[in-house]
Design goal:
By secondary structure, the protein is mainly α. It has one domain: MetI-like (MetI-like fold, Orthogonal Bundle). Helix 4 packs across helix 11. It is globular. 22% of the residues are buried. Its main location: membrane. One of its GO terms (cellular component) is plasma membrane. Pfam families: BPD_transp_1 (PF00528). It is found in: Cell inner membrane; Cell membrane. It comes from Bordetella genomosp. 2.
């Protein structure tokens, strides 16, 4: 067990080691990437929040990621219910078709979307990037939702319908609350997948709908702007907060309810005092 623990620590250290280099460089006043930093300041953070070349791609990535997550869930949820519960001819072929984008290199997908969306006039538009990212996010969301749906007990829906609920009411009152964690996980993975995608964005987004990964790639290729380390640090902080805050809230709720559950009732306390 100790050997496995040390191996786990070494793996985590290996994965997290670049962050111990990127984070200090985000506070460096060097004109390029230099480690260790010759000095520290907050100038590059100010440059990131005040420069439209960075704020606009960040806003584009947030909007495109949100649109991708929404459109992905609208497409994936009905398709998952149909492919998981129904039995029809061609079901296996459709199942394979949904997973197929995972097997195709992104550079090939990007070329196909570039020529296809170019004929439709959707290159260099947010809508084109959302559609392209949705096609790439559908397989991931489908795997998550299908795994969640396969573990769902359909007797809960049948019981709700026996009590007078319509199929739609049974879905929103029974099915959706039970499967909500799986839906949220699928939407979150779709958002992250879109926010982090760079290859397709390089071909489709263009200058007007540039995403943050595209801007980072262009900046690194042109001049190695140290603002890239600021972006990486901010993304790391957001990820840590997203993982930490729910746990802290859960522990705070448990700590608030634990004393109430451990305190004896007044009647039981009186009985204990009388018995003594």
């Amino acid at each position: 067990m100790k050997a496995l623990r040390w191996i786990s620590i070494l793996i985590v250290a290996f994965v997290a080691a670049p962050m111990f280099i990127v984070v200090p460089m985000s506070f460096s006043h060097s004109q390029s990437f230099e480690f260790p930093p010759p000095g520290y300041w907050l100038g590059y953070y100010e440059a990131y929040f005040s420069d439209p070349r960075w704020t606009l791609p960040t806003l584009n990535s947030l909007l495109i990621g949100a649109g991708t997550a929404l459109l992905t869930m609208v497409l994936v949820v009905p398709a998952t219910f149909a492919l998981t519960r129904a039995r029809f001819k061609g079901r296996n072929a459709l199942n394979l078709l949904l997973i197929l984008p995972l097997t195709v290199p992104h550079i090939v997908v990007a070329l196909g979307y570039y020529y296809y969306f170019g004929e439709l006039g959707m290159v260099q538009s947010r809508l084109g990037v959302v559609l392209a990212h949705t096609c790439l996010s559908v397989p991931v969301a489908y795997l998550i939702v299908s795994a969640t749906l396969k573990g769902f007990d359909r007797n809960l829906e049948r019981a709700a319908q026996n009590l007078g609920a319509s199929p739609l009411q049974a879905f929103f009152l029974v099915t959706f609350p039970v499967l909500r964690p799986g839906f949220l996980a699928a939407a979150l993975f779709s958002f992250v997948h879109s926010f982090d995608e760079a290859v397709v964005s390089l071909f489709i987004s263009g200058r007007d709908a540039a995403t943050l990964p595209r801007q980072m790639f262009d900046s690194l290729r042109m001049q190695a702007d140290p603002v890239i380390s600021v972006v990486s640090t901010l993304i790391l902080v957001v990820m840590i907060l997203a993982l930490t805050i729910p746990r802290l809230v859960r522990r705070a709720r448990q700590a608030a309810t634990a004393p109430r559950a451990s305190q004896p009732s007044p009647v039981l306390g009186d009985r204990l005092e009388n018995s003594c």
